[in-house]
Amino acid sequence: AKKLYFDDLRQKFVDEYIIPTLKAGAVYQDKYPLATALSRPLIVEGMVKVAKKEKADALAHGCTGKGNDQVRFELTTRYLAPELKVIAPVREWEFRSREEEIDYAKKHNIPVPVTKTKPYSIDWNLWGISIECGKLEDPWNEPPEDAYQITTSLEKTPEKPEYITIGFEKGTPVSLNGKKMDTLKLIEKLTEIGGRYGVGRIDMVEDRLVGIKSREIYEAPAATILHTAHNELEKLVFSRDLFEFKKVVSQRYSQLVYFGQWFSHIKECLDAFVEKSQRFVTGEVKLKLYKGNCIIAGRRSLYSLYREALATYTSKDMFDHTAAKGFLEIFGLPSKLEGIRNKKESKWEI
Ligand code: ARG
User: Fold this and answer.
1) Residue with the nearest Cα to atom 4 of ligand 1?
2) Does the model's pTM come out above 0.90?
3) Sheet containing 121-125, strands listed edge to edge, beginning at the edge strand earlier in sequence
4) 68 CA to middle of ligand 1, Å?
5) Which one in 97, 134, 263, 319 has a CA-CA gap of 20 to 30 Å to 146?
6) For position 116, what pLDDT does the model report?
């Protein structure tokens, strides 16, 4: 290397990647909050900036040929700088295993944070940590405690729960326990608190884009807490239609992020939908952290669609029970027609 650029992209990561993904409710295959996947297009954005400045004609990345990350790096490069060539040395060089790579590093005095007994491949950023390899490769093995980097094992978490309250404004988390807080700071704080209670450990078998099933564990206390809280607030302020439809968008959004299509017209369109959907996602969610759990303890919003007077079973009830009769007459009509028709069929059978 002749030159090194160092750029702190954390604020950009929060504003342009994490917050939109949180608002979208995007979690791959219902478990993985996408920390690694989200960081790739951000890294390429930074690399392309440097490449242009240095008038480079190619970008290099260190991915193997069987993972998702090569796809994310290369699709983003193609989108942002189609004129740049991509070089992937690890895909072309002679290494056949992780052991060989460790030997090579040793021989050439390259310091690496892995050993043959702790050969974990670890990717770590603000939104979470991804850990694979070693004992984890057998999906029957419970993850060894030493694989986890930031969360306390359940046996050692506090015996008493901790309550926290997260405030949202139009879908963006903006406060902790009633105190305004910059979202980056909030994520760091929740990583620390959640980690202490063992919240955000995820053990998953997932489908890679290249067709391989892989077993990976994740630690994402902040992402787990914020997705749980955000989703709960949406339940309070969304209509049933919006809630159900947004689930479809969340799932598609998570695939686009996972498959490396962060920069794409379809993702831009989904972002527009998501942004509109957040209009009333303002309010607070109270959570109880205990022994790896993140439990909803309360929610409130000025824009809540919940009406106690309609839901209550007490004398304060304002719901018009007599209206239900006519409603059932009409809503139940298709069921009645089918019931009559089915009866006829069984007669023909006789
Ligand atoms: N499976 C995750 C993804 O595709 C993480 C990949 C990187 N994992 C790692 N341990 N280096 O986004």
Assistant:
1) 68
2) yes
3) 121-125, 128-132, 213-219, 201-207
4) 7
5) 97
6) 79
- Say which residues have a Cβ less than 8 Å from residue 21's Cβ, sequence separation at least 6: 33, 34, 38, 253, 257
- pLDDT tens track for 210-228: 999 999 999 999 999 999 9
Say which residue, 348 or 106, is predicted with more confidence.
106
In ligand 1, which atom is closest to the CA atom of 208? 4
Rounded distance between C-alpha atoms, residue 24 and residue 268, angstroms: 12
The protein residue with its alpha carbon nearest to ligand 1, atom 12, reads 37
The pLDDT of residue 95 is 82
Query: Which one is predicted more confidently, 170 or 2?
Result: 170
Does residue 157's CB lie within 6 angstroms of at least one atom of ligand 1? no
Residue type, 286: K
pLDDT in tens, 193-212: 999 999 999 999 999 999 99
Whether the Cβ atoms of residue 76 and residue 44 lie closer than 8 Å to each other: yes
Question: What tokens does 82 get?
Answer: 């189609």
Residue 338 makes CB contacts below 8 A (sequence gap 6+) with none
Query: Ligand 1 within 6 A of 37 CB?
Result: yes
- How far does residue 130's CA lie from ligand 1's centre (Å)? 5
For residue 28, how far is its CA from the centre of ligand 1 (angstroms)? 12
Question: Cα(15) to centroid of ligand 1, in Å?
Answer: 22
pLDDT digits (tens, 9 = 90+) for 28-47: 999 999 999 999 999 999 99
**291 in Cβ contact with 157 (< 8 Å):** yes
139-171: pLDDT as tens digits: 999 999 999 999 999 999 999 999 999 999 999
- 293 pocket-lining for ligand 1 (C-beta < 6 Å): no
| 147: helix, strand or coil | helix
Burial string for 11-20 (b: 16+ CB within 10 Å, else e) reads eebbebbbbb
Q: Is the pLDDT of residue 350 over 70?
A: no
CA-nearest of 160, 152, 177, 163 to 292 is: 152
Ligand 1 site-directed mutation target among 32, 114, 123, most atoms within 8 Å of CB? 123
Distance CA(174)–CA(181), nearest Å, equals: 5
Ligand 1 in reach of 21 Cβ (< 6 A): no
Q: Which amino acid type is present at position 187?
A: I
